[in-house]
């Protein structure tokens, strides 16, 4: 009885959302996007507000000039995940979101996790952009706002929150919330204009940096640090020196910076989710992802290199790095031009992010995974007033109380988890058949076991079952996926994730002991590697689904596993406080899901209606 209840509960978690018929507009737009169009979509999504928010803090406190290597690691990790995203999207022959894809392919609980964490990313992203807008404007007027607020409130703020409440950022979010309630949104043409302005400003920063920069800033020593300490009159304290030079914080700083910089490459999923509209998806989607990631890496490389050449990394202003950098090199008037471009990029990104946040919450509420009242639309304005007000107020509170470095950590962790789920899904789905067995169908293995039960005693049946299972691990009885082979891969994939988490924890928290030859940790690491190799070999031996897709991940299962390992390792580099905040968010989400969503979802109601009609007949 207990096993039957657990089985039914598991089936509820993995219920899939059926895809509705394509809208008429999809037929008119199918095949209308070429490779260049997809590249523009990817670059526009990736090259947003993140570069103006993150670079200063990462360069000053975490990686130093080696931030350019952090971007390289983050770009390679993004490419690995991007390849998995392509196959994941190829399984849904229509445009949509990653929430829709996960819900319809993997099941309800996966869709909720992706959707709930996407809400986190958009909410926190709104708060981050509002904070960055406030910092940029404040820097233009001489930091008078921040100084006044810090003098008034700094003594009353807990250590885990920002130094002062940013009422300017709160007011900005509430203002845009009111505009969204009235139905205001950014036109596509405006987005293109702001993207062009953003590219021009970033190009100007790169060129200016290489003109005014000094290579000595990549070779700084303790003497330089002491000299700058004695001469510094800036109200912001100097950052740590580390060991100086180009890599002042070592390999750990590069990887920790990569975990944060990874967020700046999020956006390639927009290429995948519009793949139905591509003229030649087999060719254009992989090329566009690679090209867009490469373009953004070149821009991030140039901007971070220019910044660290213009200003010693420990003197970089973490909140408005580029404006202060132009002051540092004596190009004061140029910072006004840069500020206009930054504010344009931030404004466009802020309104788009808030619109996407409210729309996703509305979509999940329509599916009844979130509370139903959130799906109500105002008859007069045709907007989701309740959703917009609730999400806007939440983002405003985050912008008011939290420093955006903590918020950026949270967004990076969420992005890594989303990629981990997609990588895991691709690995599992390739070894499952698309033909779903009905309850009355029996697999060859089940039929064979029934015959064995009829002919043998219970002990011999158990022994035969165990032998059959062990044999199927290395010599699967079928050349196409079966229910048993799919279950084997599913279990092995979960085991691999667990083993990789343990290995990543050891490598991220105790790297020096492992590589210096600590007998205990080295032995544990070697044992974990052997187990990972063995489980990977078992997955490799299972039959793959022969269903034709316009793209399939090569070198399965190794490439998805490498991507899973990279994502897990970067997640383990996050701070304890980031994990605490993320844990609180997930506890709230699962409380909503298991308390409301799983019992009120549309799939639950659809399952109950046939059961009720059957009992009446």
Automatic annotation (TrEMBL):
Entry keywords, A to Z: Amino-acid transport, Glycoprotein, Membrane, Transmembrane, Transmembrane helix, Transport
GO CC aspect terms: endomembrane system; plasma membrane
Residues passing through the membrane, by range: 62-86, 98-116, 167-186, 193-211, 246-266, 287-316, 336-362, 383-404, 410-429, 488-508, 520-541, 553-571, 577-596
Intracellular or extracellular location(s): Endomembrane system
Membrane topology designation: Multi-pass membrane protein
GO molecular function, one term: amino acid transmembrane transporter activity
Location of the Cationic amino acid transporter C-terminal domain: 551-601
Annotated SUPFAM superfamilies: Calcium ATPase, transmembrane domain M
One matching Pfam family: AA_permease_C
Highest taxon in the source lineage: Eukaryota
InterPro entries: AA/rel_permease1, ATPase_P-typ_TM_dom_sf, CAT_C
Major subcellular site: membrane
UniProt xrefs under PANTHER family: INNER MEMBRANE TRANSPORTER YGJI-RELATED (PTHR43243), MGC138914 PROTEIN (PTHR43243:SF10)
Protein family (similarity comment): Belongs to the amino acid-polyamine-organocation (APC) superfamily. Cationic amino acid transporter (CAT) (TC 2.A.3.3) family.
Designated name of the protein: Cationic amino acid transporter C-terminal domain-containing protein
């Amino acid at each position: 009885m207990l096993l039957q209840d657990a089985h039914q509960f598991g089936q509820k978690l993995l219920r899939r959302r059926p895809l509705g018929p394509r809208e008429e507009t999809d037929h008119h737009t199918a095949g209308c996007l070429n490779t260049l169009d997809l590249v523009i979509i990817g670059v526009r999504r990736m090259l947003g507000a993140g570069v103006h928010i993150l670079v200063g803090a990462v360069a000053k406190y975490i990686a130093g000039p080696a931030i350019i290597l952090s971007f390289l690691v983050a770009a390679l990790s993004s490419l690995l995940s991007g390849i998995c995203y392509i196959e994941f999207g190829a399984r849904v022959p229509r445009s949509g979101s990653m929430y829709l894809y996960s819900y319809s392919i993997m099941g309800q609980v996966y869709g909720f996790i992706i959707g709930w964490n996407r809400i986190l990313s958009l909410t926190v992203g709104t708060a981050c952009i509002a904070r960055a807008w406030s910092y940029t404007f404040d820097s233009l007027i001489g930091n008078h706002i921040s100084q006044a607020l810090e003098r008034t409130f700094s003594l009353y703020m807990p250590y885990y929150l920002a130094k002062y409440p940013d009422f300017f950022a709160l007011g900005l979010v509430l203002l845009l919330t009111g505009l969204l309630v009235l139905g205001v949104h950014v036109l596509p043409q405006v987005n293109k204009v702001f993207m062009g302005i953003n590219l021009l400003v970033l190009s100007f920063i790169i060129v200016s940096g290489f003109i005014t920069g000094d290579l000595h800033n990549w070779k700084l020593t303790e003497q330089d640090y002491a000299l700058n300490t004695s001469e510094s009159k800036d109200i912001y304290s100097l950052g740590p020196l580390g060991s100086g030079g180009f890599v002042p914080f070592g390999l750990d700083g590069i990887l920790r910076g990569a975990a944060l910089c990874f967020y700046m490459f999020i956006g390639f999923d927009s290429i995948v989710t519009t793949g139905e509209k591509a003229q030649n998806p087999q060719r254009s989607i992989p090329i566009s992802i690679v090209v867009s990631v490469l373009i953004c890496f070149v821009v991030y490389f140039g901007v971070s290199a220019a910044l660290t050449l213009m200003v010693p990394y420990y003197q970089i202003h973490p909140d408005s790095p580029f404006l202060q950098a132009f002051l540092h090199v004596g190009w004061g008037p140029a910072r006004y031009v840069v500020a206009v471009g930054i504010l344009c990029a931030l404004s466009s990104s802020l309104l788009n992010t808030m619109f996407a946040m409210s729309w996703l919450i509305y979509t999940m509420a329509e599916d009844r995974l979130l509370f139903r009242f959130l799906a109500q639309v105002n008859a007069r304005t045709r907007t989701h007033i309740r959703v917009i007000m609730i999400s806007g107020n939440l983002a405003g509170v985050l912008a008011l109380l939290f420093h955006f470095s903590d918020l950026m950590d949270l967004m990076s962790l969420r992005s890594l988890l989303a990629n981990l789920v997609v990588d895991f899904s691709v690995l599992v789905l390739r070894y499952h058949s698309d033909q779903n067995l009905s309850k009355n169908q029996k697999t060859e293995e089940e039929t064979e076991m029934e015959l064995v039960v009829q002919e043998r005693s219970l002990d011999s049946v158990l022994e035969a079952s165990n032998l059959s299972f062990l044999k199927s691990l290395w010599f699967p009885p079928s050349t196409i996926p079966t229910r048993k082979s799919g279950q084997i891969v599913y279990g092995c994939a979960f085991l691999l994730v667990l083993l990789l988490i343990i290995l990543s924890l050891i490598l991220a928290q105790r790297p020096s002991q492992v590589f210096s030859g600590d007998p205990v940790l080295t032995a544990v690491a070697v044992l974990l590697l052997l187990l990972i190799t063995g489980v990977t070999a078992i997955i490799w031996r299972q039959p793959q689904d022969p269903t034709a897709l316009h793209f399939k991940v090569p070198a399965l299962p190794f490439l998805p596993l490498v991507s899973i390992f990279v994502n897990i390792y970067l997640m383990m580099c996050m701070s304890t406080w980031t994990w605490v905040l993320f844990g609180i968010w997930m506890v709230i989400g699962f409380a909503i899901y298991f308390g409301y969503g799983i019992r009120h979802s549309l799939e639950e109601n659809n399952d109950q209606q046939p059961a009720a009609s059957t009992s009446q007949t």
